[in-house]
Write a structure and sequence with these properties.
The complex is a heterodimer. By secondary structure, chain A is an alpha+beta fold. Chain A has four domains: 74 residues, RNA polymerase II/Efflux pump adaptor protein, barrel-sandwich hybrid domain (OB fold (Dihydrolipoamide Acetyltransferase, E2P)), CATH 2.40.50.100; 50 residues, no CATH class; 203 residues, Chloramphenicol acetyltransferase-like domain (Chloramphenicol Acetyltransferase), CATH 3.30.559; 46 residues, no CATH class. Chain A contains 14 helices and 21 strands. Chain B is α/β, with parallel strands linked by helices. In chain B, the strands form five sheets. In chain B, strands 2-3-1-4-5-9-8 form a seven-stranded mixed sheet, with helices on both faces. Chain B starts with 13 loop residues before the first helix and ends with a helix. Classes of the chains: A alpha+beta, B alpha/beta. Chains A and B meet through helix 6, strand 10 and helix 7 of A and strand 10 and helix 18 of B. Bound molecules: thiamine diphosphate. The site of thiamine diphosphate has 16 residues of chain B, from strand 4 and strand 6.
């Protein structure tokens, strides 16, 4: 049996000491032929693909997300599918060029056994800050600590999914399709339940809990000589402050805005009756999908390290009399538009009864604050604690009398993770996604808002509804709406009924 | 009682007399060293019997082998003349012949092997003789026993096979009329020589008082055996000192009578000057030997690192078996290819020759392919395992098939007191590459004595290994590895139910079979997800455990991970500890009675090595009830899929 052929991370850029594995283009154990790309990784300048140097079977020896020193082995090509690596393979030969001194040193800190073990565990030298020579025991202790890099890596995927009988029953009850669990291996009831209401994002942040008292250093001093009336703040306001202050104090906040045509949103509301008139649900839906590509906005910065959440749990801010609350839609990136709208509706109803359970407000990894119904032009939302970005949605405005309407999308982000260019990219991508709904629905089946000037008499009853012409959500009647320069839009409900919503309710919840 | 020889010894016998005097002087010195507290345990001296060893050794040649017993110093000196190393050995010193490890009764050098288990070396001698015969060496084996050992059954199993196979084996009985304190008149029925004659074995008879005649008879005997025949040689003699120390109830008159006719006593009376000259030389030698030994360090403990497997992180690989084959076919295939490539492999057992080829057909036609190297034996498991040990000492790789694991009880003495001890006691001068294969297990209605899993009785013997095959890793590969690496007595458990099963790597949906990098790997049924519990099993329980894992997931929403070692001893506890560190729950499944068994040991090691990891435990095994042959009851009592599933449910509560 011939020796496994090691595939090493080449030096593409003299400044790079290491590369990050982005993706395996061939799964572990797959048959590969020489010249086929097998792995892509990221250098400081570009993403690079490496080809198999020989034909055989691919054996991964690193993991996606792992940072690997230049020259280290990424994978092996072996002759037989079941050829063990660890025994047969020689220690990866490190031949670092002069520029690689640091990497070499950091590798030398490991004993050979410890190095192998650390590679298996996805641990690197920086995981052992303060340790001199890193021995096997150190690696085991670190791995056992659960603080190993592998704990932060993407959830393991499996070649198949299998459901227990009980899990199948539960899925049927919730109309869940098995596709939801693709690559998730063995699925039990608890896994389905976790899918339905996921726990908090798995990162436990060892930050000091910030109490209001703790912030006293930042206290205002009241204007001198002006008489004051003191009033204790309600607890929920205190909570709100705590969260926002923590987010603010831990972030280096910056914000970027784009304008987005309203027309497409309105089309979307029409073509997606399951939105129930809520454009926010659509924004949640699109953001969630986009965030998977923009992980800098779905993470948090802690002490020199970037933590990227492995779930996209989108919170949306509500403030309608019971305090500012941010209920969270867990794993929003894997839910359908209808499911998101349904979830949001559930939360809104609970909020209105002031019965929003605390657990429904935890575990958010990103937040959306939609003030479009509040008649604002744009807003500068504050990043929540433990997050790196928040999206603000403004209300409709018109650049000139006859132009189409626009609304603003503002992304506040933590500069410690992202930057303005990425924020712009994110917002543009989001806008493109939202405007795509316009194309999806032409011509409008009913005379819709785009061509109706805000103050046009919407009375022309081209649609038949029972009852008065009023917004079925806010119950504002036509005259009131006209005063507010709002108009009514017919929407199709899931039961097939047409329901009228005002443009205010349409814009935001 | 034989009469004293009329004639005085010819001068030509002085060298033999001096050898006998040397032996006696060494024994006397050992007794005084014992009194000085410089010896450990006890010594069995051969004072009065010296000429047995001297006479036989006279006719031995280079390459001839000798096996002895507790009273073996004289035999050893007669054959090897290594007085200094013998004294140091008995004093427990590193410069002893076995580094001080063996002591008085366990000595090995120059083709000499002693062990203090009465009769055990007769079968070992037969194995050595067979190895000589197979290697076509013109040498012989001499085994010394005492008359008390005529009571050991193994002797007659050995007589039988030695005669049947025409082995160059001489059994010498030193007939000193007593076994420890017991007179032969109390224990011996029938005639001594007639015993061997009944097996068609030629006999000879001499005594130590007429040592000149004894030497001549011994010469004839050795020559006869060298022609390829077994022989039984009775030498009448008398031990003049206690059995070991202070355990002598014989009348002083009787002892005195023998002392008077003792040849060395007479020689000293008749040739005082000659005797004094000899004794002066001897004393100088012994004094120097004692002094040298006294200055040498005591023997030290050996490394036990091979018995305790150090902690390592398991590295797992997927099992991929391209073509499923029956277990028995794979076993046969491995034996066949290894016999072809390695001429040292010999298989012995009951009913193993072709075309029958063993109760489970593993040896099929191997006897036809390799005549003489695959041998049917009589129903003599003790002899079988003893002969296996002898074959291994003789440089071969014996595979001993024990038809049913239950019969392993008859091999315990050879496995525990011989095989597992030789390498240590003989100071690593020998290795014992002997393989005992046997099918264990029930579920076939064979009843209480043909259905057990008795491996627990063979676990934990330093210097041995115990393997249990299963249907998920090609057992042929295990045997290939074993043949390539064997350096110790190895018991291989092959569960009866497995023989007909196909060995394949297919796992229940959502699970993968994996093996670690150990020489004899541990298997893991890895779930695609985090396991709720760890299921430890081995060998024949694996198919049931696997089915239970499937059911536990499908019907009870429980994810179990199986850890299934092949090597039961030395135990590598780390794969199961690692698994339990994640799952927190453990079910140990054993087919045999699990009181003080494999599982008990694993659990105890887990508590020692990783306290706190194990949160909940269940054990699955049969009740402490003999195995009934009534099918339905047997099925209900022996652990099966439903028992494991129930345990899985309990452990999750
Ligand atoms: C199998 C076994 N049973 C019992 C003993 C304990 N034992 C040691 S020597 C001995 C007497 C042996 O008598 P015999 O075979 O006549 O030899 P002798 O001592 O007379 O040389 C006994 C019972 C033993 N060593 N081995």
């Amino acid at each position: 049996m011939s020796q496994p052929v090691p595939v090493t991370a080449p030096l593409n850029n003299v400044n790079d000491e290491s590369v990050v594995i982005l993706e395996w283009l061939k799964p572990d154990g797959a048959a590969v032929s020489a010249g086929e790309p097998v792995v892509s990784f990221e250098t400081s300048k570009a993403n690079v693909e490496i080809e198999a140097p020989a034909s055989g079977y691919l054996k991964h020896s690193t993991r996606v997300g792992q940072e690997v020193p230049v020259g280290a082995v990424l994978c092996y090509i072996v002759e037989n599918a079941d050829q063990p690596i660890a025994k047969a393979a020689p220690e990866p030969v490190q031949q670092p060029p002069a520029a690689q001194v640091n990497t070499e040193q950091s590798l030398q800190r490991f004993t050979p056994v410890a190095r192998k073990l650390a590679q298996e565990q996805g641990l690197e030298a920086h995981n052992f800050e303060g340790t001199g020579r890193i021995r096997k025991e150190d690696v085991l202790a670190q791995a056992a600590n659960g603080t190993s890099a592998s704990a932060l890596q993407t959830e393991q995927t499996w070649p198949l999914v299998r459901f227990s009988t009980a899990a199948k029953t539960l899925m049927n009850q919730h109309n869940l399709s098995p596709d939801r669990f693709t690559g998730k291996g063995l699925i039990r009831v608890q896994d389905v339940e976790r899918f339905l209401s996921p726990p908090a994002a798995p990162v436990t942040v060892q930050n000091q809990p910030i109490s209001i008292e703790h912030l006293s250093a930042l206290q205002h001093s009241p204007a001198a000589g002006v008489p004051v009336e003191k009033e204790a703040l309600p607890r929920r306001k205190k909570m709100e402050i705590k969260n926002l202050a923590a987010g603010l104090s831990a972030s280096v906040t910056s914000a970027v805005s784009v304008a987005c045509p309203t027309r497409s949103l309105k089309n979307a509301l029409r073509s997606h009756p399951e939105l129930r008139g809520s454009a926010t649900a659509l924004i949640v839906y699109e953001c969630a999908r986009l965030l998977k590509q923009f992980r800098v906005f779905n993470g948090c910065y802690i002490a020199g390290e970037a933590l990227y959440y492995q779930q996209v749990n989108v919170g949306f801010a509500i403030d309608a009399g019971f305090g500012l609350k941010v209920p969270v839609i867990p794993v929003a990136d894997s839910l359908t538009i209808a499911e998101i709208a349904e979830e949001m509706n559930k939360h809104i109803l609970a909020y209105m009864e002031d019965k929003l359970p605390p657990e429904s407000q935890s575990g958010g990894t990103f937040t959306i604050s939609d003030l479009s119904s509040e008649g604002v032009f744009s807003l500068f939302p504050l990043i929540s604690s433990g997050q790196s970005a928040i999206l603000g949605v403004g209300g409709e405005f018109f650049a000139s009398e006859n132009s189409e309407g626009f609304f603003t999308l503002t992304l506040s982000f933590d500069h410690q993770l992202g930057d303005g260019r990425q924020a712009a990219k994110f917002l543009n991508a989001l806008r493109d996604r939202l405007t795509a709904y316009e194309a999806a629905c032409t011509p409008p089946p009913l005379p819709g808002p785009p061509n109706i000037p805000a103050h046009a008499p919407a009375a022309a009853p081209l649609w038949s509804t029972e009852g008065d012409l009023e917004c079925s959500r806010c119950l504002r009647a036509m005259p009131d709406l006209q005063q507010l320069s709002a108009y009514l839009v017919p929407t199709v409900q899931s039961e097939g009924k047409i329901r009228l919503l005002c443009s205010l309710c349409l814009g935001g919840f | 009682m034989t009469d004293i020889a009329e004639t005085v010894p010819p001068v030509s016998l002085f060298p033999q007399i001096e050898k006998a005097l040397l032996i006696r002087s060494v024994e006397e010195r050992l007794l005084s060293l014992f009194a000085e507290g410089k010896l450990f345990g006890t010594v069995h001296t051969c004072i009065g019997q010296e000429f047995t060893g001297v006479a036989i050794a006279e006719s031995l040649q280079q390459g001839d082998l000798m096996c002895s017993n507790h009273r073996g110093h004289g035999h050893f000196i007669a054959k090897t003349n290594r007085v200094e190393e013998l004294i140091a050995e008995i004093m427990g010193r590193q410069n002893g012949v076995c580094g001080g490890r063996g002591g008085s009764q366990h000595i090995c050098a120059d083709g000499f092997y002693s062990n203090g288990i009465q009769g055990g070396m007769t079968a070992v001698g037969a194995g050595l003789a067979l190895s000589l015969k197979l290697k076509e060496q013109p040498n012989i084996v001499v085994v010394f026993i005492g008359d008390g050992t005529l009571g050991e059954g193994l002797l007659y199993e050995t007589f039988n096979i030695a005669s049947k196979w025409n082995l160059p084996l001489m059994v010498v009985i030193e007939n000193n009329l007593y076994a420890q304190s017991t007179s032969q008149t109390q224990t011996l029925a029938g005639d001594i020589l007639a015993r061997a004659e009944a097996f068609g074995i030629k006999t000879k008879h001499a005594d130590t008082w007429n040592y000149a005649a004894l030497i001549d008879t011994a010469k004839e005997a050795v020559e006869y055996v060298r022609q390829g025949n077994p022989l039984f040689f009775r030498i009448d003699t008398y031990r003049l000192m206690a059995h070991s120390k202070g355990d002598d109830d014989r009348s002083s008159d009787e002892v005195e009578g023998y002392r008077l006719k003792d040849p060395l006593t007479r020689f000293q009376a008749e040739y005082p000057d000659k005797a004094a000259e000899m004794l002066d030389r001897i004393k100088l030698r012994i004094d120097a030997a004692v002094q040298e030994a006294d200055n040498a360090p005591y023997t030290a403990a050996i490394s036990v690192s091979e018995e305790e497997i150090a902690k390592t992180q398991s590295v797992w690989h997927d099992i991929q078996i391209a073509q499923p084959e029956r277990m028995s076919t794979l076993l046969h295939g491995s034996l066949q290819r290894n016999m072809q490539s390695n001429p040292n492999i010999v298989i012995i057992g009951e009913d193993i020759e072709g075309p029958y080829g063993g109760a489970f057909k593993v040896t099929k036609n191997l006897s036809l392919e390799h005549p003489g190297r695959v041998r049917n034996t009589p129903i003599s498991e003790g002899m079988l395992s003893g002969a296996g040990n002898g074959l291994a000492l003789g440089g071969l790789i014996p595979v001993v098939e024990i038809m049913f694991g239950d019969f392993l009880t008859l091999c315990t003495d050879q496995f525990i007191n011989h095989a597992s001890k030789f390498r240590y006691m003989y100071n690593d001068k020998v290795t014992l590459p002997v393989i005992l294969r046997t099918p264990m297990g029930g579920k076939r209605g064979y009843g209480a004595t043909h259905s057990q899993c008795l491996e627990k009785h063979f676990l934990g013997l330093p210097g041995t290994q115990v393997l249990a095959l299963n249907n998920r890793l090609d057992p042929g590969i295990i045997y290939d590895t074993l043949f390539a690496s064997i350096d110790r007595p190895t018991l291989v458990i092959e569960n009866k139910m497995l023989y007909a099963m196909r060995v394949q790597s297919e796992a229940p949906e959502g699970f993968t079979w994996q093996y670690d990098e150990a020489q004899f790997p541990t298997l893991r049924l890895k779930p695609y997800g985090a396991a709720d519990l760890t299921l430890l099993c081995y060998g024949g329980m694996l198919p049931d455990a696997e089915k239970a894992v499937d059911t536990l997931f499908e019907e009870y929403d429980i994810i179990a991970e199986i850890i299934c070692p092949i090597q039961l001893y030395p135990l590598n506890p780390w794969p199961v500890i690692e698994s339990v560190q994640h799952s927190g729950r453990l079910i140990v499944v054993e087919e045999g009675h699990n009181f003080a068994a494999f599982g008990s040991e694993v659990i105890s090691q887990m508590m020692l090595h990783s306290p706190g990891a194990l949160k909940k435990l269940e054990r699955v095994g049969p009740p402490l009830h003999p195995i009934p042959s009534c099918g339905p009851l047997e099925k209900a009592l022996l652990p099966g899929v439903s028992h494991i599933v129930e345990a899985g449910k309990r452990v999750m509560q």
